[in-house]
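QA checklist item 7 of 12: single-chain prediction sanity check.
[x] sequence parsed
[x] length recorded as 211
[x] structure emitted
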Amino acid sequence: MSKNNRAKVVRAPEDFGYVRVSTASQNTDRQLIALEPYGIPEGNIFIEKKSGKDFNRPRYKAMLRKLRAGDLLYIKSIDRLGRNYDEIIEQWYYLTRNKGIDIFVLDFPLLDTRRKEHDLTGTLITDLILSVLSYVAQMERDNTLQRQAEGIAAAKAKGVVFGRKPVELPEDFDEIFRRWQDREITNVEAAKLCKFSVRTLYTLTEEMRRT
């Protein structure tokens, strides 16, 4: 049989799950338990331990390479996909329209693209729900960053003192602290950049939370 006459093998749609926590120390059990009733093959569950500030994530990219049109992706909540409003919207439409997959958000069943309501009203409602949830996800992240910034500013203004010696914060402490919180640098690296100990770094964080 010639190559031209060979029957094209059609791959059956598959189910996938995406689980994400922001740091290596956080537990994925709650999300994995939520996925259990759907019988997703173990090899199709992609677990990420990385901040959701963007989509530059190894396991997410690996999943994208495996997804094909007709597949179904399960996520526990919209903020597991990401926390940047514009990027969540862009990625959602890339997955559903460009790659042709379906998405089901477990915590919000209305966000289920298998609901074939192709009329204008159904599409509008889905888009509105997605926009609101994505907006809320980003606002939560922005509020957290704002509280951190205010705590740092207050600590700098009053002069943070631990024990007998005052701790001088470097000029770029805001950026160092952000990178540390987002797990871009380790505890040791953050402390070294600040020129004090890891213990002082943690003590400073607790002080700012009380500010």
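[x] summary fact logged: Strands lie at 15-21, 45-49, 72-75, 102-105, 161-162, 165-166.
[ ] second reviewer sign-off
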